Amino acid sequence: MTEVSVAKDTAPAADGLVVLKNVNKHFGALHVLQDIDLTIARGEVVVVIGPSGSGKSTLCRTINRLETIDSGDISIDGRPLPQEGKELARLRADVGMVFQSFNLFAHKTVLENVMLGQVKVRKADKKAAEEKARALLDRVGVGTQADKYPAQLSGGQQQRVAIARALAMDPKVMLFDEPTSALDPEMINEVLDVMQQLARDGMTMVVVTHEMGFARSAANRVVFMADGRIVEEAAPEQFFSNPRSDRAKDFLSKILHH
Ligand SMILES: Nc1ncnc2c1ncn2[C@@H]1O[C@H](COP(=O)(O)OP(=O)(O)OP(=O)(O)O)[C@@H](O)[C@H]1O
Ligand SMILES: [Mg+2]
Q1: Is the pLDDT of residue 4 over 70?
Q2: Is residue 168 a part of any domain in this protein?
Q3: Which is the most buried residue in 13, 26, 116, 200, by most CB within 10 A?
Q4: 188: Cβ–Cβ under 8 A, 6 or more apart, which residues?
C-alpha cells in the first residue's frame, strides 16, 4: 500500500490550544489512531468527519483522556495530559464533552445537573452555581425547564442541557461527538443553533458530525479521517468543493447524495 500524504490547505495554527503529536493507539491488533498530528488553535472550530470506524470518537476520547494512548503526546493549553488524580479531574473539567447520548443524571433535575460539576469540581458555592446554571440554561433556550427531570424533556432539550452542563465548567475546549445523530430531525437545528452561537462566541470546538451544513457554516477547518489516519484537512469550502483524496471524494459522494 502506498503512503497517503496529508493534504494541508490551512496554515499551521500558531497558538495551539489542543496539540496532538504523533499519537498512536491500538485496540488489540487494531491500529485505531495512526500517527495523528493535529493542532487546534484557540477559538478554532474543527469539524471531524469520516467513515464509521475511522477513529473519530476515539480521537475525541483521547483528548480528555477517556482513552489512553500508546505513544505520542497530547497537550492542552501548553500542558501535557495528566495521567490521573486531581490533575486529571481538572483537565476533564477544562475539556467539555457532549456525546450522542445525553448522559444527564436521571435522578437529578435539569438545574441540579448543571450545578453539580460546578460545586463538586470547581468548588463553587451553591448560590453562585445556581445563578450560573440558570443563566446558561437561558442561553441554550431551556431556562423554563430548570426544575424538570431529564426524562420530561425532548431529546433536543436534553442535549442543550448537556451543553449547558459542560459550559458550566468554563471549559477551554468543547468536544462534540455526533451531538445530533440521536435526535429527531426537527430537534437537530435547535442544537446546531446553540453550537453555532458558541462558535460565534469564540469557543474552541472539535465537532464530529455528519451535519455538513454546520461544517460549512461554522467550521474553520474540516479534518477528514479514514482508517485511523487524518487523510485530508482543509477549509470547508475547499474540502467540500474540491476534496483531494479519493477516500474523501468517495465519502462525500455517499453522504451528499443521500
Ligand atoms: N473500546 C474498544 N475496544 C475495542 N475496539 C474499539 C473500542 N472502541 C472503538 N473500537 C474500534 O476502533 C475503531 C474506531 O472506533 P471509533 O468509535 O473511534 O470510530 P468512529 O469513527 O467514531 O465511528 P462511528 O462513525 O461509527 O462513530 C472501530 O473499528 C471500533 O470498532
Ligand atoms: Mg463515533
Answers
A1: no
A2: yes
A3: 13
A4: 156, 180, 211
Per the domain annotation, does 50 fall within a domain? yes
Residue 184 one-letter amino acid:
D
Residue 225: strand pairing partners = 230
Query: What is the Å distance from ligand 2's center to 220 Cα?
Result: 21
Q: Is 205 contained in some domain?
A: yes
User: Would you state the torsion angle of the CA atoms of residues 129, 135, 139, 140, taken in this order, to the nearest 10 degrees?
Assistant: 50
What's the half-sphere exposure (Cβ side, CA atoms, 13 Å) at 38? 32
- Cα(28) to ligand 1 centroid in Å equals 12
Ligand 1-lining residues (CB < 6 angstroms):
27, 30, 32, 50, 52-58
Confidence of residue 91 (pLDDT cuts 50, 70, 90): confident
In this structure, the residue with its CA closest to atom 5 of ligand 1 is: 27
- Top-confidence residue, 104 or 3: 104
Atom of ligand 1 nearest to the CA of 58: 18
60 lies in some domain: yes
Domain span at residue 88 reads 18-254
Q: What is the count of structural domains for the chain? A: 1
pLDDT in tens, 231-250: 999 999 999 999 999 999 99
C-alpha cell at 48: 471531524
Probe residue for ligand 1, chosen from 52, 59, 68, 176 as the CB with the greatest number of ligand atoms within 8 Å: 52
Distance in Å, CA 52 to ligand 2 centroid: 7
Q: Which ligand is nearest to the CA of 55?
A: 1
CA–centroid distance, residue 184 to ligand 2 (Å): 18
> Going by DSSP bridges, is the β-strand pair 229-234/7-8 parallel, antiparallel, or unpaired?
parallel
